[in-house]
Automatic annotation (TrEMBL), chain B:
Domain ABC transporter: 20-251
Pfam families: ABC_tran, TOBE_2
Keywords: ATP-binding, Nucleotide-binding, Transport
Domain of life: Bacteria
GO terms assigned for molecular function: ATP binding
Alphabetical list of SUPFAM superfamilies matching this protein: MOP-like, P-loop containing nucleoside triphosphate hydrolases
Organism field: Pseudonocardia nematodicida
Protein name: ABC transporter ATP-binding protein
Family matches, as InterPro entries: AAA+_ATPase, ABC_SmlMolc_Importer, ABC_transporter-like_ATP-bd, ABC_transporter-like_CS, Mo/tungstate-bd_C_term_dom, P-loop_NTPase, Transp-assoc_OB_typ2
UniProtKB/TrEMBL annotation, chain C:
Species annotation: Pseudonocardia nematodicida
Protein name: ABC transporter permease
Regions crossing the membrane: 34-59, 94-116, 128-149, 161-184, 210-236, 256-277
Family: Belongs to the binding-protein-dependent transport system permease family.
Chain segments carrying region Disordered: 1-26
Membrane topology: Multi-pass membrane protein
CDD domains attached to this UniProt entry: TM_PBP2
C-alpha cells in the first residue's frame, strides 16, 4: 500500500514523458507489494493485534504493563534473563575474539576450516544442538562425571541458569564471531607494523591500535548476542527449569498454559521493543542484519 | 634504552643519521628463488638512497630487512657498525613511511604524531612542543585535532612523515610513499621530501619502482633485479654508464643492438656493420661475468639523424623512418634497425627535416655508447 | 669491528661475536603466536565437538538418554524410518520447507529488486519492515501468531506453517539477493531495453542472470529457515500436523524418545557434509590452480 504511494511520489503526475519501464522508479513499488502483503498478514498484523489486546483487555489502559512491574515474578525473571544474557555476551566475546583474530591471520586452508567450524553449528538444527547439551549436562552425564572425578559432587548443570548459559554461549558464538571477523578483516595490518616501527612492542601495538579499531565489531556482535540471548526460547526450554526460567519461557507459559493473551501481549511488546532498540543500536555499528544473514557471504571466507 | 631514546628525542629534529650496512643479506621464503639473495650494501650517514626496481625485484624486502619487519635468513644488518640483525623492529629506532600512509584512523593528527613520543616516555609539554614543531615542518599547522579521514591523501602522507621523523629516528625508510598520489601532488611532495631531508639531515632510504622519481630525488640509486643488486651509483652514473642491459633499459629510454665481437679488439659487428668501441665504454660486467651476448646501448638523444653514409669516426646504421612523433620540445624519429629492432632518435624540435619513409642514417659518437652484457 | 662513530644513534643491540653469515632460525616478525593457535583449536573444538555427542547417543540400546550408552543398537534409526509419527513429521517438514523456499524466494527476490530500484526515502523503512522477523525474538512472533492463527483457524494446518515460515524466510532472501544486487548497475537494464528487450526479458536475461548466486543462496537460507524453525512451529503444532523440529523438541522434553538422537545425528552429518563440500571443493580448485601457476 505505502509502496504504491511511494512510487507515484517519485514521478509526479503530469510530468514524466514516458521513460523505459523497469529502470528506476516506476513499477518498483509493485514488486515489493506481494512480500509486504504476506508479511503484513502473517506476522505484522498478529503482532499489532497482540499489542492491541495488551492495551484493551480486560479494560482499556496500561494495566497489563503495570502488572509486569508489580506481579513479583516478571521483574525477577527479567533480571535473571538480563544477567544470563550479559554473561553469555561476555563469554562469547572472550572466546570469540581470539578466534576471529586468528581467522584474519591464518592462511587460506586453515581459514576455510575455521570458517567451516563456525558455519557447521550455525546451520545445524537448534534442537539437535540443545539436545546434545542436554546429554552433556544431565545427571551422570559426561560433564557431571568429569566434575566428580575432580571431586565436585552433585553440581548438575541441567536445570540451572549456569547450564543454560553454558549451552547458550556455544549456540551464540557464531553470532559473535561473524561480525568480529568482518570488522577485523577490514583493519590494515600495516598499521600494526607501523606502530612497531614507531617503537611499540608487538603486544602494545595490538592494544593501542588493533583493539580500538575492532571496537565496532565488538559492539555490534555484543549487542546482537545480547539481544538474541535475552529473547531466546529453545535453550532455556530444553535445559532450564521452571524454577530458573527466562523471559521467553514466561511468555510461552502465559500464552500456552495461562491463556492470558493480554498479559502475554504486554510482555511480548516489551521484549520486542527492547530487542528492536538494541538491534537498531547494533545497526549503527555496522549492519546487524547483515551479520545475521551474512553467513552466506562469510562462506566465501572473506 | 629508554634513556638513550629520550635524549635523542630531546636532541631536536636534526640528527646526523646512521650508517646502514648489509652484508650477505638473504631472505628466503622457500620459493623458487630467494626474495633477496646476498645483498651487500653500504648506505652512508645522511645519504638519500633509492632502492629502485620492478615489483618482485627485492627492494621492499630489503627495506623490511633494514626496518626489522622481516627477519634475515642469512647475513647481517648493521647500524653504525653494530649488528642489529637480532634487534626487533620496535627497538631499531627508525622512521617508516608506507604507501598506504598507515595512519591510525582512530587517533587525531596530534595523537598520531605523539604516538612514537609516548612510546618513548617523553613528557607531555615536550610532546606538545615537538608535535607543533614538526607540524610546522610539514606545513600542516592547526590540523592537530583532525582525524586522518578528514585530510586529503597528500596531507595524510605529510602527517605520516611528521610522525616518522618527530622522534629523531636514525634513518627514515620510505616504502613507495608517493605511489598512491596523483602526478601533480607527487611532484610537490618529492620537492618537499628533498627539503625535509636537507633540514633533518637524517639517512633516507627510499623504495620506488619509478625511475624518474629515483633519478630526481636520490644521491645514489641501488638498482634491484631478481632479488639481487644490479648496479649501485649516482643517477648520472646509472643513466650514462649502465653496467647491464637491464640497467640500461630500466632507467630511461635506450636503443639496444645485439652485437658480436671481442671487446678487447675494440670493434663490434652488428649484422655486417662494424664500428669501433673505445675501452672506456665497456661495462666492467663484461669482464666480470661469463657473457653470452653483448649489446650496444645508445640513448636516443645521442643519436644524430643524417642522410647518406655514416660519418667517418662515428658508429651508426642505415634505416627507413617508420614514424616521426612531435612531443613539443623535441621530436622522436622512429625506425627499425637492420635486425628489425626498434630504434629511436630524439631531436630538438624544428631540427627535423625527415619524414616517414625517408632513408636515413642513425649515428652516434663512439664515446656516447655503452657495451653491456645481457 | 670498530667502535660505532655515533654512540647516541646506536640502538640497543647485542653485538654478534662473529662467525660469518650463520643460517638464522629466528621466528619471523609478526608471526602468529603458538598459544593463539592453541586457543583457536580449542574454540574450533567447542564449536564442533559438543554437538557430535548425539552420534554415539543415537546407537544406544536403551530407552533413555543415559550416556555413554551401555549397549549398542540401531533400533532408533529403524524407529525413525518406520514410526509413522516420525515419517509423517519428516514429510510435513519437507513439504512446508519446499513450499516456503519457492514462495519466499519469489517474493523476496521481487521485493529486493523493487527496493533496489526505489529512490524514495521510504525504501529504507520498507526494507526495515520486511526485515522485522529476522530481528524479532522468535518467541514474541510465536505467541502473537499463535493467538491470531487460533482465531483464523490456521493452527495445525499446512497453510499456517507456510504463511509464517515464508514471512520468516523473506528477510534471508532479501539480505542475500540484496548483497548481489549491490554490485548491479541498473543502466544495464536500460541498455538491454534500448537493444529491443521488453522489461521482463531484460530482467530475465540480464539482471536475474547476474544476481543468480544471491537468489540461490537466498533459496537455501529460506529452505533451512523453515526446516529448522522450532519456536513458532511448537505453537502452531497440532496432533495431526507437526514438523520434524517439533517432533524432536517433544521427544527431548516430554517423551524421552532416543529416536531424536538418530534424527539429530543424521541432521548433523547432513549439514556438515553440505558445508564442507563447497569448502573442500574450493580448496581442491585452489590447489589445482596453484599447481598450474607454479609449473
Amino acid at each position: 500500500m505505502s509502496a504504491m504511494t511511494t512510487t507515484t511520489r517519485t514521478s509526479p503526475p503530469g510530468a514524466a514523458p514516458r521513460r523505459p519501464r523497469g529502470g528506476r522508479g516506476r513499477g518498483a513499488g509493485a514488486l515489493v507489494v506481494p512480500a509486504l502483503a504476506l508479511m503484513g498478514a502473517a506476522v505484522l498484523l498478529p503482532l499489532f493485534l497482540s499489542f492491541l489486546r495488551s492495551v484493551t483487555e480486560p479494560s482499556p489502559g496500561l494495566s497489563n504493563y503495570a502488572a509486569l512491574l508489580t506481579d513479583g515474578v516478571t521483574l525477577t525473571i527479567f533480571s535473571r534473563t538480563v544477567l544470563v544474557a550479559a554473561a553469555v555476551t561476555l563469554a562469547t566475546l572472550v572466546i570469540g575474539y581470539p578466534y576471529a583474530y586468528l581467522m584474519t591471520r591464518v592462511g587460506g586452508t586453515a581459514r576455510l576450516l575455521m570458517v567451516a567450524a563456525v558455519l557447521v553449528p550455525f546451520w545445524t538444527s537448534m534442537t539437535a544442538r540443545n539436545f546434545a547439551w542436554l546429554i552433556l549436562e544431565q545427571r551422570e552425564g559426561p560433564i557431571d562425571r568429569a566434575l566428580q572425578t575432580i571431586g565436585i559432587d552433585g553440581a548438575v548443570l541441567l536445570g540451572s541458569a549456569w547450564g543454560v548459559g553454558l549451552a547458550m554461549t556455544q549456540v551464540m558464538l557464531p553470532f559473535m564471531v561473524l561480525p568480529l571477523y568482518s570488522a577485523m578483516s577490514g583493519i590494515d595490518r600495516k598499521l600494526l607494523l607501523a606502530a612497531q616501527g614507531l617503537g611499540s612492542r608487538p603486544l602494545t601495538a595490538f592494544r593501542r591500535v588493533f583493539l580500538p579499531l575492532s571496537r565496532g565489531g565488538m559492539i555490534s556482535g555484543g549487542i546482537l548476542v545480547f539481544a538474541l540471548s535475552s529473547g531466546f526460547y529453545v535453550t532455556p526450554a530444553i535445559l532450564g527449569s521452571p524454577q530458573q526460567s527466562m523471559v521467553a519461557q514466561l511468555l510461552a507459559q502465559r500464552t500456552n498454559q495461562l491463556l492470558d493473551f493480554a498479559a502475554a501481549g504486554a510482555l511480548g511488546t516489551v521484549v520486542l521493543v527492547f530487542t528492536l532498540l538494541l538491534v537498531s543500536l547494533a545497526g549503527r555499528f555496522g549492519g546487524s542484519a547483515t551479520a545475521l544473514g551474512g553467513a552466506v557471504q562469510a562462506k566465501g571466507g572473506r | 634504552m629508554t634513556s638513550t631514546t629520550a635524549t635523542r628525542a630531546e636532541a631536536g629534529s636534526r640528527t646526523p643519521g646512521i650508517h646502514i650496512s648489509l652484508a650477505g643479506a638473504t631472505k628466503d621464503y622457500g620459493l623458487a628463488r630467494p626474495a633477496v639473495a646476498d645483498v651487500d650494501l653500504e648506505i652512508a650517514s645522511g645519504e638519500f638512497v633509492s632502492l629502485l626496481g620492478p615489483s618482485g625485484s627485492g627492494k621492499t624486502t630489503t627495506l623490511n630487512l633494514i626496518s626489522g619487519l622481516e627477519t634475515l635468513t642469512r647475513g647481517t644488518v648493521s647500524f653504525d657498525g653494530t649488528d642489529v640483525s637480532d634487534v626487533p623492529a620496535h627497538r631499531r629506532n627508525l622512521g617508516m613511511l608506507f604507501q598506504s600512509y598507515a595512519l591510525f584512523p582512530h587517533m587525531t593528527v596530534a595523537q598520531n604524531i605523539a604516538y612514537p613520543l609516548r612510546e618513548r616516555k617523553v613528557g607531555r609539554a615536550e610532546i606538545r612542543r615537538k608535535v607543533a614543531e614538526v607540524l610546522g615542518l610539514v606545513q600542516l599547522e592547526g590540523r592537530d585535532d583532525n582525524l586522518p579521514k578528514q585530510l586529503s591523501g597528500g596531507q595524510q602522507q605529510r602527517v605520516a612523515l611528521a610522525r616518522a621523523i618527530v622522534f629523531g629516528p636514525g634513518a627514515l625508510l620510505l616504502d613507495e610513499p608517493l605511489g598512491a598520489l596523483d602526478k601533480n601532488l607527487r611532484g610537490a611532495l618529492q620537492t618537499e621530501l628533498r627539503r625535509i631531508h636537507r633540514e633533518v639531515g637524517s639517512t633516507f632510504v627510499f623504495v620506488t619502482h619509478d625511475q624518474e622519481e629515483a633519478m630526481t630525488m636520490s644521491d645514489r640509486i641501488v638498482l634491484f633485479h631478481e632479488g639481487g643488486v644490479e648496479q649501485v651509483g649516482s643517477p648520472r652514473d646509472l643513466y650514462e654508464a649502465p653496467d647491464t642491459l637491464f640497467a640500461a633499459r630500466f632507467l630511461g629510454e635506450a636503443n639496444t643492438l645485439e652485437v658480436e665481437g671481442d671487446p678487447a679488439s675494440g670493434t663490434v659487428t652488428h649484422r655486417g656493420v662494424s664500428w669501433a668501441v673505445p675501452a672506456g665504454v665497456v661495462s666492467p660486467e663484461v669482464a666480470r661475468r661469463p657473457v653470452s651476448t653483448l649489446h650496444v646501448v645508445v640513448r636516443p638523444e645521442a643519436v644524430q639523424v643524417g642522410t647518406g653514409e655514416v660519418p667517418a669516426g662515428r658508429a651508426g646504421v642505415e634505416l627507413r623512418v617508420r614514424d616521426v612523433e612531435y612531443v613539443g620540445h623535441f621530436v622522436r624519429v622512429l625506425g627499425n634497425g637492420p635486425g628489425g629492432e626498434p630504434l629511436t632518435a630524439k631531436l630538438p624540435a624544428g631540427a627535423s627535416p625527415v619524414a616517414a619513409g625517408d632513408r636515413v642514417t642513425f649515428s652516434w659518437d663512439g664515446a656516447d655508447q655503452r657495451l653491456v652484457p645481457a | 669491528m670498530s667502535a660505532p662513530p655515533q654512540d647516541r644513534t646506536r640502538p640497543a643491540a647485542t653485538t654478534r661475536t662473529g662467525h660469518s653469515a650463520p643460517r638464522r632460525s629466528r621466528r619471523p616478525v609478526d608471526s602468529v603466536p603458538v598459544w593463539l593457535k592453541a586457543v583457536g583449536v580449542v574454540v574450533a573444538a567447542l564449536f564442533v565437538l559438543p554437538t557430535l555427542v548425539v552420534v554415539p547417543m543415537s546407537f544406544t540400546a536403551g530407552g533413555t538418554f543415559r550416556f555413554p550408552p551401555a549397549e549398542l543398537s540401531t533400533q532408533w534409526y529403524e524407529s525413525f524410518f518406520t514410526d509413522p509419527r516420525w515419517t509423517a513429521a519428516v514429510g510435513n517438514t519437507v513439504q512446508v520447507a519446499l513450499t516456503v523456499m519457492v514462495l519466499a524466494t519469489v517474493l523476496g527476490t521481487a521485493a529486493a529488486v523493487g527496493l533496489s530500484r526505489m529512490r524514495s526515502r521510504w525504501a529504507g523503512l520498507l526494507r526495515a519492515t520486511l526485515m522485522l522477523p529476522l530481528v524479532s525474538p522468535g518467541i514474541v512472533i510465536a505467541v502473537a501468531v499463535y493467538v491470531s492463527y487460533l482465531q483464523w483457524r490456521l493452527v495445525g494446518t499446512f497453510g499456517g506453517y507456510v504463511l509464517v515460515h515464508t514471512a520468516m524466510a523473506i528477510p534471508f532472501v532479501l539480505v542475500s539477493v540484496g548483497a548481489s544486487l549491490g554490485g548491479f548497475d541498473n543502466r544495464l537494464l536500460l541498455a538491454a531495453q534500448s537493444l529491443g528487450a521488453t522489461p521482463w526479458r531484460a530482467f530475465r536475461t540480464v539482471q536475474l542472470r547476474l544476481i543468480a548466486p544471491g537468489v540461490v543462496s537466498g533459496a537455501v537460507f529460506a529452505f533451512v529457515t523453515s526446516l529448522d524453525e522450532v519456536v513458532v512451529a511448537l505453537f502452531l503444532r497440532a496432533p495431526q500436523f507437526e514438523t520434524l523440529p517439533v517432533r524432536m523438541f517433544n521427544s527431548v522434553t516430554v517423551e524421552i524418545d532416543p529416536t531424536v538422537a538418530a534424527a539429530s545425528s543424521m541432521l548433523v552429518v547432513l549439514v556438515t557434509a553440505l558445508i564442507l563440500f563447497p569448502q573442500v571443493f574450493r580448496l581442491l580448485r585452489r590447489r589445482r590452480s596453484n599447481g598450474k601457476a607454479m609449473s
